[in-house]
Amino acid sequence: MTKHLDSASREYFKSLPQARYEGQDSTNDFAYRYYDKNRMVMGKSMEEQLRLSVCFWHTFCWDGSDVFGAGGFHRPWHQMDDPKDAAAAKREAAFDLFSILDLPFYSFHDVDVMAPAETAQEHVTYLNEAVEHLEGLMASSGQKLLWGTANNFSHPRYMAGASTNPNPDIAAFAALQVREALNATHRLGGSNYVLWGGREGYDTILNTKIGQELDQLGRFLSLVVEHKHKIGFTGDILIEPKPHEPTKHQYDSTVQTVHAFLQRYGLEREVRVNIEANHATLAGLSFEHEVDMAFALDLFGSLDLNRGDPQNGWDTDQFPNDLREVTLVLKSILSAGGLRNGGLNFDAKVRRQSITAEDVAQAHIGAVDLMARALLNAEAMIQDGRLDQFREQRYAGWQGGIGAKMLAGEVNLDAVADFALSSNHAPNPVSGRQEWLENVVTQLVR
Ligand code: XUL
Ligand code: CO
Which of 233, 319, 376, 414 pairs as cysteine with 367 (C-beta 3.0–4.6 A)? Predict the structure, then answer.
């Protein structure tokens, strides 16, 4: 039975047509209409500008279950008897989909790629076996790793947190998982290592010492940074902010709270952020806000692409489809010189009723095309120049006179106040021209 199902796993994505660029007039549901990976956009190919990545967890691990019902995807590797064979079949199927989508990167949590482990020793052994297999699959396919991470939130041991757990033995288990996942990421040539503190927060203040937990989290992150340098990992360590879910309050809630946290523990030059669209909107912020904030604070690292549902207040992780939103995000990235180590990772899942292999492929193909189209729009916006010119000119006053002196710290409050008194005029407001700016965006989002 296992053998038969294993070959079924190999056929699962392989039976799909190869996705390739066919241009806007294509009628093929498996073709890219905009993503022409070799097309040059602002000095780099589309493939290099977008650095697109497929995630393991939603795409290959999730079986379609939700809190009210069982999974209905019935992927072949979910039905295999032997957990190690099932994990191997899942890894092979993943690389089949990577090749059909022809995107350069992927991302994974330790537990996504390995057989389930209970003890610490099993964890190390099973992960190593998986990494050896991944290494071979990467060598033969050329697929690259955008980032690796440790899942320190699913196992019941982490119900009260990982590094912020009241029990240091659990924090030590988390440290083992992170060391192994960081070593694996290094071995596989990953560009970044991500920490999403899924349960680094709390449910009730009645049982929680916030200051103690923050110190535990700060120390833990310092240990991770030290280890990165010890093993010579040159990628970025990234924190992924999220305000709540699964816990009521999470400490790394937004880019700004992460920044304050990093400063408090002296890590602001060592750690960057992986910003997820749906996490931004859960925090009551826009995706563009979080991205621009990260650039302003010199913390930008990478992006997780998905969207929430405007009527639902939880993390629905849907594939992105808002062209205007992602165009503005890509414009910020291009204006800042483009992605460096980071990439665009589809941390997104199909809906529970989308049960077929075709659904998984088409979800990615549509989102890839959305990003390619947004990239072309972003390039057009920069070349058009009206948005940037208006913003520059709006702050031009700060480049000379009292504005420049204030910024340079050359004047005290008395001097600034006396300047206002001596010039004795009532400064007039000017229009912020929001509607005109929005019209320009509408003209350029195509
Ligand atoms: C959870 C989430 C995670 C991280 C990696 O909301 O986004 O999948 O991206 O742990
Ligand atoms: Co994410």
Answer: 319
Measured in Å, residue 434 CA sits from the centre of ligand 2 at 32
> Residue 353: what pLDDT?
98
Task: State if pTM tops 0.85.
Answer: yes
Take atom 10 of ligand 1 and give the residue whose Cα is closest.
196
Could you count the other beta carbons within 10 Å of the beta carbon of residue 242? 25
Nearest-atom index, ligand 1, CA of 279? 6
- Give the ligand 1 atom nearest the CA of 57: 8
pLDDT of residue 5: 60
Please list the rounded mean pLDDT of every run of 10 residues in the chain (446 residues): 66 96 98 98 98 98 97 97 97 98 99 97 98 98 99 98 98 98 99 97 98 98 98 98 97 98 98 98 98 98 97 95 98 98 98 98 98 98 98 98 98 97 89 98 98
Looking at the domain covering 2-384, what would its CATH class be? alpha beta
Query: Ligand 1: which residues within 6 Å by Cβ?
Result: 57, 109, 149, 194, 196, 240, 242, 276, 304, 315, 347
Q: How do the domains of the chain map onto residue ranges?
A: 2-384, 390-444
